[in-house]
């Protein structure tokens, strides 16, 4: 699969998630096994109004979404893959006034589970705000309730 359809599929999946719409999360880059999303800095993500610091929940949303949508990038066909486990280790606070990027890659795909890892960063990926590992359950392309979402994400070609 070329990178353009992967990017388009990731974008359509992201657009289907209301919380991500509200936060303004957008696709920054997408490849066959990885994804980078951008969480723009805004008053909606501020956790401490006195300092302008980014709320940890916004970073958790970014990273769960990044890991989850990276599963869409690695699979040849759309499948519902809910989060089974997500661990985030925060290294240091995000700086106020700067966008936050989330990178995730799928490093192992089994018939039942997809394993992901990644990090959140601002200016430099070598200076991560947080590290994440996540596991996602493969429900199969015919999973209950997944057909409408699949059609929406794949643009009706499901």
TrEMBL record:
<dbReference type="InterPro" id="IPR006683">
    <property type="entry name" value="Thioestr_dom"/>
</dbReference>
<protein>
    <submittedName>
        <fullName>PaaI family thioesterase</fullName>
        <ecNumber>3.1.2.-</ecNumber>
    </submittedName>
</protein>
<dbReference type="InterPro" id="IPR003736">
    <property type="entry name" value="PAAI_dom"/>
</dbReference>
<dbReference type="Pfam" id="PF03061">
    <property type="entry name" value="4HBT"/>
</dbReference>
<dbReference type="InterPro" id="IPR029069">
    <property type="entry name" value="HotDog_dom_sf"/>
</dbReference>
<dbReference type="GO" id="GO:0016787">
    <property type="term" value="F:hydrolase activity"/>
</dbReference>
<feature type="domain" description="Thioesterase">
    <location>
        <begin position="52"/>
        <end position="126"/>
    </location>
</feature>
<keyword id="KW-0378">Hydrolase</keyword>
